[in-house]
Design goal:
By secondary structure, the protein is α+β, with helices and mostly antiparallel strands. It has 7 helices and 11 strands.
Length: about 325
């Protein structure tokens, strides 16, 4: 595990170095082109210089944006969970729509996705899902997605086809690196095994491969049942437990800092961070950054970069003025 993490870190750093060297080479080429134009008085080069300048400026702006990933865990993989809120089938369907959205975004950005756990809804959708996203700065990108997501639409599950509002909660955790792992003593956990269940809760295996781990000091409970063997499920559950313990430790630290500094009172509307409206009009709006788009279908198909970039830039701006 440690060797894999080190190799991934080296690969990420190598890609960053190659990218900046590419910018350096492109800038040198542009400077040579400008010099040639000045010395030879060739006006035909003007168009080429303009195009090269625009391309270089866009490339540099994109690489400057990468500097927002300066958090302690931004370069790590991400583990995120989706929980359907109150609302029965509508909210469970909405949770599944969100899962699909994140899977599509991950595919578009070259990330590898592993579904660690799913709990199907009674009729449709999912009650919850936990997914691991592996790729460059996966946590750095997805950390701004934590919070409540709100959907407004004409319900396909309502006989009168009335407008419904559904909610789902998204949690995002950094996958713990080996050097940042918290020691978990055997005496501090209780491990229970049970048969993996399928749609509707029925048992789908005759052997107890599913694992539930309870961390006794904190009462944190994690389960995993998607792997084939009990050992694999236990390993995944321990990784999730590590991530939750790290998150808890950082939350306690942040609360102590807020207590000393004075609590920040947000002027946000309710708990939702973002609204996806499909009726009576079509729009996705992030209530933190103010970014909005009139193409919710593209967002639900994984086109999240505009929303993510806007919130990441807002977060960096707030941090710099704090």
């Amino acid at each position: 595990m440690r060797a894999q993490g080190v190799m991934q870190r080296l690969s990420t750093l190598g890609q960053e170095i190659d990218a900046w060297r590419g910018v350096e080479a492109q800038a040198a080429g542009l400077a040579e082109l400008v010099s040639m134009s000045l010395h030879e008085g060739d006006s035909d080069l003007t168009e080429d210089i303009g195009r090269e300048t625009a391309e270089l400026a866009a490339r540099v702006a994109d690489m400057e944006f990468q500097l927002v990933f300066s958090g302690p865990h931004d370069d790590q993989n991400a583990i995120f969970a989706i929980h359907a809120g109150a609302g029965g089938s509508d909210s469970q369907d909405w949770a599944q729509m969100l899962l699909r959205m994140y899977l599509r975004w991950s595919e578009k950005n070259g990330c590898r996705v592993s579904v660690l756990e799913t709990s199907p809804g009674e009729e449709t959708g999912i009650k919850r899902a936990m997914v691991e996203v592996t790729g460059p700065f996966a946590y750095g990108w997805l950390k701004v997605e934590r919070g409540v997501h709100r959907l407004v639409r004409l319900s396909p599950f309502d006989a009168d086809h009335m407008r419904h509002t559904s909610f789902a909660l998204v949690e995002v955790l950094p996958e713990p690196a080996e050097e940042g792992a918290i020691e978990i003593r055997d005496e501090d956990i209780r491990v229970d095994t049970f048969r993996a269940s399928g749609h509707g809760g029925q048992n789908v295996q005759k052997v107890e491969t599913a694992v539930r781990i309870t961390h006794i000091p904190t009462d944190i409970v994690v389960t995993c049942q998607n792997e084939r063997s009990q050992g694999q499920n236990r390993d995944v559950a321990m990784r999730i437990l590590q991530a939750r313990l790290i998150e808890r430790e950082e939350t306690l630290r942040a609360e102590e800092q807020a207590r000393l500094k004075g609590a920040h009172i947000s002027a946000g509307w309710g708990n939702q961070i973002r609204s996806y409206v499909l009726h009576p009009y079509r729009m996705v709006k992030d209530h933190r950054s103010g970014f909005e788009t009139r193409d919710p279908q593209a967002v639900l198909d994984g086109e999240l970069d505009g929303l993510l970039r806007a919130e990441l830039m807002r977060t960096v701006g707030n941090a710099s003025t704090a």
